[in-house]
Amino acid sequence: MPEFPPTDLFSLAGQLVLLTGGYGYLGQAVARGLAAHGATVVVLGRDATAFQTAFAAEPTIRFQPCDVADTASVQAALAAVEAQHGLPAVLINNAFYSRGSRPDQLTDEEFALGLDGSLGSTYRCIREALPYLRRRGGGKIINVASMYGVVAPDFSAYAATPQFTNPPHYGAAKAGVIQLTKYFASFLGPENIQVNCVTPGAFPSPAVQQQSAEFVDQLTRRIPLGRIGQPGDLAGAFVFLASRASDFVTGHNLVVDGGWTIK
Protein backbone atom coordinates (compact mmCIF):
# COMPACT_ATOMS: atom_id res chain seq x y z
CA MET A 1 0.00 0.00 0.00
CA PRO A 2 1.29 3.52 -0.73
CA GLU A 3 2.60 5.62 2.12
CA PHE A 4 0.83 8.87 2.96
CA PRO A 5 1.24 11.56 5.65
CA PRO A 6 -0.49 10.73 8.94
CA THR A 7 -2.25 14.09 8.68
CA ASP A 8 -4.09 12.74 5.63
CA LEU A 9 -5.53 9.71 7.42
CA PHE A 10 -9.07 11.07 7.31
CA SER A 11 -8.81 13.11 4.14
CA LEU A 12 -11.39 12.31 1.47
CA ALA A 13 -10.05 14.82 -1.04
CA GLY A 14 -10.65 13.64 -4.58
CA GLN A 15 -12.95 10.83 -3.45
CA LEU A 16 -16.41 10.33 -4.94
CA VAL A 17 -18.89 8.95 -2.41
CA LEU A 18 -22.33 7.59 -3.30
CA LEU A 19 -24.86 7.89 -0.49
CA THR A 20 -28.39 6.52 -0.55
CA GLY A 21 -30.87 8.05 1.88
CA GLY A 22 -28.71 11.15 2.05
CA TYR A 23 -31.31 13.83 2.68
CA GLY A 24 -32.95 12.21 5.71
CA TYR A 25 -32.40 13.15 9.34
CA LEU A 26 -29.19 11.16 9.78
CA GLY A 27 -28.16 11.10 6.12
CA GLN A 28 -27.72 14.86 6.05
CA ALA A 29 -25.16 14.74 8.85
CA VAL A 30 -23.31 11.90 7.13
CA ALA A 31 -23.21 13.78 3.80
CA ARG A 32 -21.94 16.97 5.43
CA GLY A 33 -19.31 15.10 7.44
CA LEU A 34 -17.94 13.44 4.32
CA ALA A 35 -17.99 16.69 2.34
CA ALA A 36 -16.21 18.52 5.17
CA HIS A 37 -13.32 16.08 4.77
CA GLY A 38 -13.02 16.77 1.05
CA ALA A 39 -15.32 14.23 -0.58
CA THR A 40 -17.68 14.91 -3.43
CA VAL A 41 -20.91 13.31 -2.27
CA VAL A 42 -23.61 12.19 -4.68
CA VAL A 43 -26.91 11.59 -2.92
CA LEU A 44 -28.98 8.92 -4.65
CA GLY A 45 -32.67 9.45 -3.98
CA ARG A 46 -36.18 9.91 -5.34
CA ASP A 47 -37.03 13.38 -4.08
CA ALA A 48 -35.14 16.26 -5.70
CA THR A 49 -37.15 18.80 -3.71
CA ALA A 50 -36.15 17.23 -0.40
CA PHE A 51 -32.53 17.24 -1.55
CA GLN A 52 -32.67 20.92 -2.50
CA THR A 53 -34.24 21.80 0.84
CA ALA A 54 -31.44 20.02 2.67
CA PHE A 55 -28.42 21.00 0.57
CA ALA A 56 -29.32 24.02 -1.55
CA ALA A 57 -26.05 25.90 -0.99
CA GLU A 58 -23.56 23.01 -0.72
CA PRO A 59 -21.81 22.52 -4.09
CA THR A 60 -19.83 19.41 -3.13
CA ILE A 61 -23.05 17.53 -2.35
CA ARG A 62 -24.84 16.57 -5.57
CA PHE A 63 -28.08 14.80 -6.43
CA GLN A 64 -28.79 11.87 -8.72
CA PRO A 65 -32.34 10.52 -9.14
CA CYS A 66 -32.49 6.89 -8.05
CA ASP A 67 -35.05 4.47 -6.62
CA VAL A 68 -33.17 1.78 -4.70
CA ALA A 69 -36.24 -0.46 -4.89
CA ASP A 70 -35.83 -0.76 -8.66
CA THR A 71 -32.84 -2.42 -10.33
CA ALA A 72 -33.18 -0.51 -13.59
CA SER A 73 -33.24 2.78 -11.70
CA VAL A 74 -30.10 1.88 -9.76
CA GLN A 75 -28.34 0.86 -12.96
CA ALA A 76 -29.28 4.08 -14.74
CA ALA A 77 -28.24 6.20 -11.75
CA LEU A 78 -24.80 4.62 -11.49
CA ALA A 79 -24.18 5.02 -15.20
CA ALA A 80 -25.18 8.69 -14.98
CA VAL A 81 -22.89 9.24 -11.99
CA GLU A 82 -19.90 7.81 -13.83
CA ALA A 83 -20.63 9.94 -16.89
CA GLN A 84 -20.85 13.12 -14.81
CA HIS A 85 -18.38 12.54 -11.99
CA GLY A 86 -16.22 9.49 -12.73
CA LEU A 87 -15.85 6.23 -10.82
CA PRO A 88 -16.98 6.11 -7.19
CA ALA A 89 -14.58 5.27 -4.38
CA VAL A 90 -17.23 4.63 -1.73
CA LEU A 91 -20.81 3.35 -1.66
CA ILE A 92 -22.90 3.97 1.46
CA ASN A 93 -26.18 2.05 1.70
CA ASN A 94 -28.28 4.16 4.06
CA ALA A 95 -31.74 4.26 2.45
CA PHE A 96 -34.57 2.04 3.63
CA TYR A 97 -38.32 1.73 3.23
CA SER A 98 -40.93 -0.18 5.18
CA ARG A 99 -44.61 -0.52 5.95
CA GLY A 100 -46.47 -1.88 8.97
CA SER A 101 -45.56 -1.83 12.66
CA ARG A 102 -47.83 -4.20 14.62
CA PRO A 103 -45.52 -7.12 15.48
CA ASP A 104 -48.16 -9.85 15.24
CA GLN A 105 -50.32 -8.36 12.47
CA LEU A 106 -48.00 -7.69 9.53
CA THR A 107 -49.30 -8.91 6.20
CA ASP A 108 -47.11 -11.02 3.96
CA GLU A 109 -46.71 -8.02 1.67
CA GLU A 110 -45.68 -5.71 4.53
CA PHE A 111 -43.17 -8.21 5.86
CA ALA A 112 -41.62 -8.76 2.43
CA LEU A 113 -41.47 -5.02 1.75
CA GLY A 114 -39.70 -4.36 5.05
CA LEU A 115 -37.11 -7.02 4.33
CA ASP A 116 -36.49 -5.61 0.87
CA GLY A 117 -36.38 -2.05 2.19
CA SER A 118 -33.28 -2.69 4.28
CA LEU A 119 -31.70 -5.94 3.10
CA GLY A 120 -32.81 -6.34 -0.50
CA SER A 121 -32.04 -2.75 -1.39
CA THR A 122 -28.57 -3.03 0.16
CA TYR A 123 -27.78 -6.14 -1.85
CA ARG A 124 -29.19 -4.55 -5.01
CA CYS A 125 -26.95 -1.50 -4.68
CA ILE A 126 -23.86 -3.57 -3.85
CA ARG A 127 -24.42 -5.82 -6.85
CA GLU A 128 -24.89 -2.93 -9.28
CA ALA A 129 -22.00 -0.85 -7.88
CA LEU A 130 -19.42 -3.63 -7.98
CA PRO A 131 -18.49 -3.27 -11.67
CA TYR A 132 -17.63 0.39 -11.02
CA LEU A 133 -15.54 -0.33 -7.93
CA ARG A 134 -13.78 -3.15 -9.75
CA ARG A 135 -12.92 -0.93 -12.71
CA ARG A 136 -11.53 1.58 -10.25
CA GLY A 137 -9.32 -1.11 -8.73
CA GLY A 138 -10.93 -1.14 -5.29
CA GLY A 139 -13.03 0.89 -2.94
CA LYS A 140 -15.20 0.81 0.14
CA ILE A 141 -18.77 -0.20 0.84
CA ILE A 142 -20.46 0.93 4.05
CA ASN A 143 -23.81 -0.54 4.98
CA VAL A 144 -26.15 0.78 7.65
CA ALA A 145 -27.79 -1.58 10.13
CA SER A 146 -29.43 -0.85 13.50
CA MET A 147 -29.07 -1.70 17.15
CA TYR A 148 -32.16 -3.87 16.60
CA GLY A 149 -30.15 -5.97 14.20
CA VAL A 150 -27.91 -6.79 17.19
CA VAL A 151 -30.34 -7.04 20.12
CA ALA A 152 -34.08 -7.46 20.51
CA PRO A 153 -36.18 -4.44 21.48
CA ASP A 154 -36.87 -3.85 25.15
CA PHE A 155 -40.64 -3.71 24.78
CA SER A 156 -41.10 -2.03 28.15
CA ALA A 157 -39.67 1.10 26.50
CA TYR A 158 -42.73 1.17 24.23
CA ALA A 159 -45.41 0.36 26.82
CA ALA A 160 -46.75 3.92 27.01
CA THR A 161 -46.10 4.72 23.34
CA PRO A 162 -47.04 1.63 21.30
CA GLN A 163 -47.11 3.70 18.11
CA PHE A 164 -43.30 3.73 18.19
CA THR A 165 -42.89 -0.04 18.62
CA ASN A 166 -40.09 -1.34 16.41
CA PRO A 167 -41.47 -3.99 14.00
CA PRO A 168 -39.95 -7.45 13.49
CA HIS A 169 -39.13 -7.13 9.80
CA TYR A 170 -36.92 -4.11 10.50
CA GLY A 171 -34.64 -5.86 12.99
CA ALA A 172 -34.57 -9.06 10.96
CA ALA A 173 -33.50 -7.16 7.85
CA LYS A 174 -30.87 -5.15 9.72
CA ALA A 175 -29.41 -8.34 11.20
CA GLY A 176 -29.23 -9.57 7.63
CA VAL A 177 -27.37 -6.42 6.63
CA ILE A 178 -24.70 -7.17 9.24
CA GLN A 179 -24.28 -10.71 7.90
CA LEU A 180 -24.32 -9.46 4.29
CA THR A 181 -21.49 -7.11 5.27
CA LYS A 182 -19.38 -9.99 6.57
CA TYR A 183 -20.16 -12.10 3.52
CA PHE A 184 -19.08 -9.48 1.02
CA ALA A 185 -16.08 -8.47 3.10
CA SER A 186 -14.83 -12.03 2.73
CA PHE A 187 -15.81 -12.29 -0.93
CA LEU A 188 -14.37 -8.95 -2.02
CA GLY A 189 -11.26 -8.74 0.15
CA PRO A 190 -8.95 -10.09 -2.58
CA GLU A 191 -10.22 -7.31 -4.87
CA ASN A 192 -9.18 -4.50 -2.48
CA ILE A 193 -12.80 -3.69 -1.62
CA GLN A 194 -13.48 -3.23 2.08
CA VAL A 195 -17.03 -3.79 3.29
CA ASN A 196 -18.09 -2.54 6.71
CA CYS A 197 -21.25 -1.67 8.58
CA VAL A 198 -22.41 1.12 10.89
CA THR A 199 -25.04 0.29 13.50
CA PRO A 200 -26.76 3.36 14.96
CA GLY A 201 -29.07 3.61 17.93
CA ALA A 202 -30.97 5.34 19.39
CA PHE A 203 -31.48 8.38 17.15
CA PRO A 204 -35.19 9.32 17.32
CA SER A 205 -36.18 11.86 14.69
CA PRO A 206 -37.15 15.43 15.60
CA ALA A 207 -40.80 14.56 14.91
CA VAL A 208 -40.66 11.67 17.37
CA GLN A 209 -38.91 13.85 19.94
CA GLN A 210 -41.61 16.50 19.61
CA GLN A 211 -44.46 14.00 19.81
CA SER A 212 -43.36 12.20 22.96
CA ALA A 213 -40.94 13.37 25.60
CA GLU A 214 -41.90 10.26 27.57
CA PHE A 215 -40.67 7.94 24.82
CA VAL A 216 -37.39 9.83 24.55
CA ASP A 217 -37.02 9.54 28.31
CA GLN A 218 -37.55 5.77 28.10
CA LEU A 219 -34.79 5.54 25.50
CA THR A 220 -32.45 7.78 27.48
CA ARG A 221 -32.79 5.62 30.59
CA ARG A 222 -31.45 2.63 28.68
CA ILE A 223 -28.37 4.36 27.24
CA PRO A 224 -25.22 4.27 29.40
CA LEU A 225 -24.11 7.69 28.14
CA GLY A 226 -27.38 9.14 29.41
CA ARG A 227 -28.69 10.76 26.23
CA ILE A 228 -30.10 9.94 22.82
CA GLY A 229 -27.88 10.24 19.76
CA GLN A 230 -27.63 13.40 17.72
CA PRO A 231 -26.88 13.30 13.97
CA GLY A 232 -23.39 14.71 14.45
CA ASP A 233 -22.54 11.73 16.66
CA LEU A 234 -22.82 9.48 13.62
CA ALA A 235 -20.83 11.35 10.98
CA GLY A 236 -17.36 10.42 12.25
CA ALA A 237 -18.00 6.70 11.87
CA PHE A 238 -18.62 7.15 8.15
CA VAL A 239 -15.62 9.44 7.69
CA PHE A 240 -13.43 6.80 9.33
CA LEU A 241 -14.77 3.91 7.27
CA ALA A 242 -14.61 5.91 4.02
CA SER A 243 -11.05 7.12 4.59
CA ARG A 244 -7.54 5.64 4.45
CA ALA A 245 -7.69 5.31 8.23
CA SER A 246 -9.78 2.15 7.76
CA ASP A 247 -7.80 0.52 4.94
CA PHE A 248 -7.12 -2.59 7.07
CA VAL A 249 -10.67 -2.80 8.45
CA THR A 250 -13.22 -5.02 6.74
CA GLY A 251 -16.22 -7.06 7.83
CA HIS A 252 -16.57 -4.86 10.90
CA ASN A 253 -19.81 -3.65 12.48
CA LEU A 254 -19.13 -0.26 14.07
CA VAL A 255 -21.80 0.31 16.72
CA VAL A 256 -22.66 3.95 17.50
CA ASP A 257 -25.34 3.62 20.17
CA GLY A 258 -24.17 5.32 23.35
CA GLY A 259 -23.71 1.85 24.86
CA TRP A 260 -27.25 0.52 24.36
CA THR A 261 -26.16 -2.90 23.10
CA ILE A 262 -23.55 -3.59 25.79
CA LYS A 263 -26.22 -4.54 28.29
TrEMBL record:
Coiled coil residues, start to end: none
Single biological process term from Gene Ontology: fatty acid elongation
Superkingdom: Bacteria
GO molecular function: oxidoreductase activity, acting on the CH-OH group of donors, NAD or NADP as acceptor
Family: Belongs to the short-chain dehydrogenases/reductases (SDR) family.
Name this polypeptide is given: Gluconate 5-dehydrogenase
